[in-house]
Amino acid sequence: MNPVFSDLPVSIFEIMSLEARARGAINLGQGFPEVDGFADVREAAGRALMTQSNQYAPMRGLPILRNAVADFYHRVQGVTVDPDTQVLITSGATEAICAAIISMVTPGDEVVVFEPMYDAYVPLIRRAGGVPRIVQLRPPHWEFSDDDLRNVFSDRTKLVLITTPNNPTTHCFSREQLTLLGDYCQRFDAWVMSDEVWEEVVFDRAHVSVLHIPTLAQRAIKIGSAGKIFSLTGWKVGFVVAEKALIDQVARAHQFITFATPPALQHAVAYGLGLPRDRFEAARAELKSQRDYLAGLLAEAGFARLPTEGTYFLNIDLAASGVTGSGLDFAYRLVREQGLATIPLQAFCETGRDLPVLRLCFAKARDSLTRGAAALAAARKAN
What we know:
By secondary structure, the protein is an alpha/beta fold. Helix content is about 45%, strand content about 15%. The protein has 2 domains: about 5-30 and about 280-380, Alpha-Beta Complex (Aspartate Aminotransferase, domain 1), CATH 3.90.1150; about 40-275, 3-Layer(aba) Sandwich (Aspartate Aminotransferase, domain 2), CATH 3.40.640. The chain contains 15 helices and 13 strands. β6, α9 (about 215) and β7 form a beta-alpha-beta unit.
């Protein structure tokens, strides 16, 4: 067995899901909405299933979707890309991440990552033979400094992985932070893979992409997700945008991972990306309302909330809320004694540090949020 995977412990997500199912618990841990999004996009998939080809799609994606992705980014983010040479369609963003890492990293290469981070990064880096170099981001604003980058960049740095907006911290990297990162990537001739799947779930500010940063635009692999844009997380349709040489390289790995993505879903996503802008703004406003509703309940219960800039998630500062012990211990008590599944942020830390922050998903029904907040209040009282 490959030790990269055989030595991995059972993930906290699987543990919490099993605990939740066994106890019939409220699940604010898993990051997906309780209600499917964009009904007309789902209807478009149904029509395409019956009227369009269901055979293998082109490896790089249907032209209609690659054009839609290029047009969407041009209209929404002011980014100009060639749909024929600079866009690749993948079977979900995680597949795109995998293809990017294994196509770029060779044994001994160093890869800079920022912790807390999406849990797929480090295993994929190690599977490619790379060496993760970890920057520990700190609450409440989860920013990095010049000193942080100086300590991890070297002549062996090949790739940098970032997530903005970030799951699990919810923070968005600012233009100033990305410019600082671009200076280091330029100095050390490193590439950057930017996981921007939450780009349409940003609150109270505009999304800043790596493609907006002059020193990063030519050396960046930007990854997006239809599942996050349309609240259809099970669809697993991702897109990669980059310079032609980078797209060609990532495509070489993609062709041997999934090769192609279901064509009906590609047609539907192309339809959805062309919808009027107010549709996306309404969806974001609804999610913001959910965020604010849960935040209000938590404030009433005495919990200190960290800034929530994007994603489906809200984080609470357990230490500042008067909760003692580790975040992991509190999460176990919540699910076993109060019937509420959550995820502690230390589960996203490769270094094993105890980070007393708890992640909650607010893309749920109001009843689930109300009951979840009541369970948290009861657990805090019993602590």
